[in-house]
Specification:
mainly alpha; elongated; Four Helix Bundle (Hemerythrin (Met), subunit A)
Length: 150
């Protein structure tokens, strides 16, 4: 029963993560307003919580509940999946730092003064994050079918 709970938690957090990144993606397409800037800060907080939960629940599943760490350590698609997760986490640092820099101004009711080029960079990063998630899903499916074991 506990293995099923951690599988549920892992998948719930993964869906929350994807949803929050997709929400950021959609909000970044619109004009920046006080409301959308606050929502982006909130979505980014959800991304951080969901990513930490995905990682923690996933590692617990690997080491205690599923096929065992030996199986996963010898699967190229698991290694690729973890590598992509880390790459996406590193990519997300830039938007998070930018969004966090908006907090004081937003609390004072001021719209963030962000250069259009910086907003475009954030949009590009979010595109890369979404593409990376698609690749993670492919790796997960291949790994689950035993493909990539060495």
């Amino acid at each position: 029963m506990i293995a099923a709970f951690f599988a549920f938690l892992h998948h719930l957090a993964a869906f929350a993560l994807v949803s929050a990144i997709a929400a950021e993606f959609l909000m970044m397409r619109e004009e920046l307003t006080l409301r959308s800037a606050r929502r982006m800060l909130f979505a980014d907080m959800i991304i951080g919580i969901a990513a930490a939960t995905v990682l923690a629940a996933g590692l617990l599943r690997v080491f205690f509940f599923e096929k065992g760490s030996n199986y996963y350590a010898h699967n190229a698609f698991f290694i690729a999946k973890i590598s992509l997760f880390v790459a996406i986490a590193l990519l997300s640092i830039y938007p998070t730092r930018e969004f966090l820099s908006w907090r004081k101004g937003l609390n004072d009711g001021r719209l963030p003064a962000t250069a259009p080029s910086k907003l475009q960079s954030i949009r590009s990063i979010i595109h890369l994050e979404l593409a990376g998630i698609g690749l993670i899903l492919l790796c997960a499916a291949l790994m689950a079918k035993g493909i990539g074991s060495f």
